[in-house]
Amino acid sequence: MLEMLSFTFMQHALLAGVFVSILCGVIGTLVVVNRMVFIAGGIAHGAYGGIGIAFFMGLSPLLGAGAFAFILALIIAAITFKNKERIDAVIGALWAFGMAVGIVFIDLTQGYNVDLMSYLFGSILSVPQSDVWAMGGITLLVASVVSAFYKELQAMSFDPEFAQLRGVPVKLLYYVLVVLVALCVVATIRVVGLVLVIALLTIPPYIAEGFSSKLGVMMVLSALMATFFTLGGLWLSVAYDLTSGASIILVASLSFFLTLGAKRFKT
C-alpha cells in the first residue's frame, strides 16, 4: 500500500477521500440532526437525470449532475419548508423522475460509456485531478458557509420556531442547507456513487452522535470517522481488487452495526 502512494492516481484518491470525508462529516451532521436523510437521498438519486442529460449533450457528467441537483434542491426546499406532510411521496416522485430522465437520455445517447458505472457506484481510484480540485473547492465553500452561519444553523437545527422568533432567517438558511446538501452529493459521486452516497452522509454522524453533545464536536468526529471509513475502504479495494465505493460503504456499515450492537448490549 505504501509503495502505491508514489502513483499519481493514488494521491488523487487520498485527497478526494479526505475532501469528501470532511464534506460528509459537516453536511451529514446537519442532515441527521435536521432529519433530512430522505431529502438528501432524493437529491442524490434524482441527480442521475443530470448525468444522463450531460452524456447526451456531450458535457461533463459532474456538471450535469450539479445543475440538476441544484434545481432539485430548490424544488424540494420550496415544497418541504412548510409542508411536512406527505413529503415522502413528493420526494419519491422527484427521485423517480430524475432516475427516469437519466435512463431515457442515456438510452438516446449513441454508444455506451463504461465510465457511467463510476457515477453510480463510485470509482475513487479513477478520480482525475480536475475533480479533485473541484472537490477541494466545494469543501472550502461548504466549510466557509457553515462556519459563517454556525450559530444560526445550530439554532435552526434544534428549535426552528424559537430561532425564527429571535430573528434568525430560518427559511433562507433552510434553502442554503438543502443546496449545500446538493453540493455535497455532487462532490461525493465519484467516490462512492449516487447509489451509496446516502450511507456516507448518514452513518458517520449517527455514530458520532453517541460520543458528542455539541454540534461542532459531532461534525469533527463525523469527519474523522468518514475519513477512516473512506481510507479503510480504499485500502480494501486496492489490497483485494474490490469495487472502491462498495468497499468504503462496507467498512462504514460494519462499523454502524458494531456500534448499534454495542448500544443494545449496554442497555
From TrEMBL:
Membrane topology: Multi-pass membrane protein
CDD domains: TM_ABC_iron-siderophores_like (cd06550)
Predominant cellular place of this UniProt entry's protein: membrane
Keywords, in A-Z order: Membrane, Transmembrane, Transmembrane helix, Transport
Listed transmembrane segments: 12-32, 37-56, 62-81, 93-112, 132-151, 172-203, 215-235, 242-262
Pfam families: ABC-3
Domain of life: Bacteria
Subcellular location: Cell membrane; Membrane
Family that this chain belongs to: Belongs to the ABC-3 integral membrane protein family.
Protein's name according to its UniProt entry: Metal ABC transporter permease
Source species of the chain: Sulfurospirillum tamanense
Taxonomic lineage: Bacteria, Pseudomonadati, Campylobacterota, Epsilonproteobacteria, Campylobacterales
